[in-house]
Hints:
Layout: H1 7-24, H2 33-50, E1 53-57, E2 66-70, E3 77-83, H3 92-95, E4 99-101, E5 104-106, H4 110-130, E6 138-143, H5 154-162, E7 164-168, E8 179-183, E9 185-194, E10 198-199, H6 210-222, E11 232-240, E12 246-247, E13 250-259, H7 262-273, H8 275-279, E14 288-297, H9 304-319, E15 326-329, H10 335-340, E16 345-346, E17 353-354, E18 362-364, H11 368-381
Helix pairs in contact: 1-4, 2-4, 4-11, 9-11
Amino acid sequence: MPxxxxxxxxxxSGPMLDELxxxxxxxxxTTDAAAVNRLLDLAESGLGAAGAHLRRLPGTRGHGDMLLxxxxxxxxxxxxxxxxxxxxxxxxxxxxxxxxxxxRAHGPGIYDMKAGSYIAxxxxxxxxxxxxxxxxxxxxxxxxxxEVGSPSSRATIEAAARDAVAVLIPEPASAEGHCVTARxxxxxxxxxxxxxxxxxxxxxxxxxxxxxxxxxxxEAANGLVDLARGVTTNVAPVWGGTRPNVVAHEAxxxxxxxxxxxxxxxxxxxxxxxxxxxxxxxLPDGIAIEVTGGMNRxxxxxxxxxxxxxxxxxxxxxxxxxxxxxxxxxxxxDGNFTAALGVPTLDGLGVPxxxxxxxxxxxxxxxxxxxxxxxxxxxxxxx
Length: 383
């Protein structure tokens, strides 16, 4: 336990942090299925020893496995969904080591979202070990690919949600401790532009610059932004050409789309996919544009059932000694999938901190125990 620990929350959170450290020291980039599976093995072992009914689903599309752990009981479950993959490549620990500095515990993936998945694991394991009665069975689904849009796990998440009375998502709380009752929908698109190479000095007129075509795409994509409606686009990364003295024969980019409503998602998806036809009249012959992709996560709308779930969580949090404000968050999560099915979903139930996907990533580790207690309270009492 860290030497800085003081007070009841720190005393209870210290042993949890010691175990979470083992999770952080296992690097789990989404792109390495074997690495993600090593952490899944650890979770599977702990939950199996506690008596969970386990179902391990082999990975597909090059991603790691999934684990569905369930407590005894019949009927629809309280479902908790967490991911084990991170955005950090192997070797990140060497330059961004796990460390504890006062109230902050740093490390790649600790905030997004190993701490959240860990407290879900810890809560279910404690329920099983202690034989605590719950109103409903509790199911924990651990997934390997949320950071790239959950391509291999979405169908499993949705199937589990259809068999649930409520879904809890322990994605990180905000720095101020907010949980999440709504999220924007997310679309991802890839753009490829083909032109014709030529020497930029002696045969410029024979070339057709793919970069010019890409510039028109970028301008059009930015023109779709409507902040009043909650619509944003972001173009990155961007690439094109080979050398300054060669007219670029190819170029491309990716486009991130965020929308507040399903209707805007459908409308903007159509508009982006139609850009090759829309822009063609203004481009020189010989430039071809291709746009692929679509909406990846539907919007997660705030609903009366979701707000009732939030009020239950807020009351339990108060009993555990802290406020639980709520927020509407622009980033997507696997909660988007479950909320879109009409299943009451509460997100952002993980540990406060900051720096997701950034070098200063950290959690406020003294919040491990109280946040875990709230998640456990929801697991035990929802019905």
